[in-house]
Specification:
Blueprint lengths: L15 E4 L11 E7 L5 E8 L6 H15 L4 E8 L9 H11 L3 E3 L6 E2 L4 E2 L2 E6 L4 E6 L8 E7 L12 E3 L3 H12 L4 H4 L4 H10 L6 H6 L2 E3 L3 E6 L6
Parallel strand pairs: 3-4
Antiparallel strand pairs: 1-2, 2-3, 4-8, 5-8, 6-7, 9-10, 10-13, 11-12
């Protein structure tokens, strides 16, 4: 089995630092990567792991322990997610070994529902581990891209104290606000757009009419402050 691997996608608005764990990777036995997003008042490291069903569990546990022991400290929160290929439905020896290791770092499994359902089996082999004291919500999401379902972790933390000019804002965009926005646009005459010949000038005039302080967006989708919620999506886009 070749061409495996793991990756982490980070939203373009979030600053982050890559953590190079390549030296610990061994195909099928442990494939792992990590990032440190600059998002909360506490340090946070998100790991994504993969272990093949036939992978060497001893190698996996030994090197996960080395990684966690190297990076772990009292001011850093960890989130470990990925395809562990260890069934968390029921009890088994491999599950007990993983739990014994991660419990020494106060990590608990958050996924207790099936993540892979086939015609002949149901298993929970994808999981997200986080600190036992963290406040979180976990739920499944069926995306249809793989035989593994998505696990969605919503981890809420208090936002850092920042100056007013650094405050993040979002717009409430939904079907109702879009319908109102389109209705307002339908009353616009657009003389400044269609009254010119040059395409660049026409395009710039159109954009200028949609600036953040214009009556359309300001009325239909006003800016509101953004809560500090971290969304962690975990899935396997390949097959077991």
């Amino acid at each position: 089995m070749k061409c495996g691997g793991v990756c982490i996608y980070v939203h373009g608005t979030i600053k982050f630092t890559n953590i190079n764990l390549y030296k610990y990777c061994r195909e099928q036995d442990l494939e792992i990567t990590a990032v440190k997003p600059e998002f909360f008042e506490r340090n946070l490291i998100v790991f994504c792991v993969y272990r093949a069903p036939t992978g060497d569990l001893d190698y996996f546990l030994k090197h996960v322990d080395i990684i966690l022991n190297t990076l772990h400290n009292s001011t850093t929160d960890f989130i470990l997610c990925g395809d562990w290929n260890i069934n968390y439905i029921g009890t088994n020896n491999n599950k007990a070994r993983v739990d014994n290791l991660l419990s020494t770092y106060n990590f608990i499994a958050t996924v207790h529902f099936p993540t892979r359902i086939t015609n002949i089996s149901t298993s929970s082999i994808d999981n997200i581990f986080t600190d036992g004291s963290s406040n979180y919500t976990i739920k499944p999401h069926i995306h249809g891209l793989s035989d593994h379902d998505v696990q969605l972790l919503l981890l809420e933390k208090s936002a850092p104290t920042i100056s007013s000019h650094e405050t993040s804002y979002i717009r409430n965009i939904n079907q109702c606000t879009l319908a109102e926005f389109q209705s307002l646009l339908s009353w616009e005459q657009w003389e400044e757009v269609f009254g010119v010949v040059d395409v660049n000038t026409m395009f710039n005039n159109f954009l200028n009419s949609l600036k953040p302080n214009d009556p359309y967006m300001g009325r239909t989708t006003p800016l509101t402050s953004k809560r500090s919620i971290l969304y962690i999506y975990s899935t396997n886009i390949g097959t077991e």
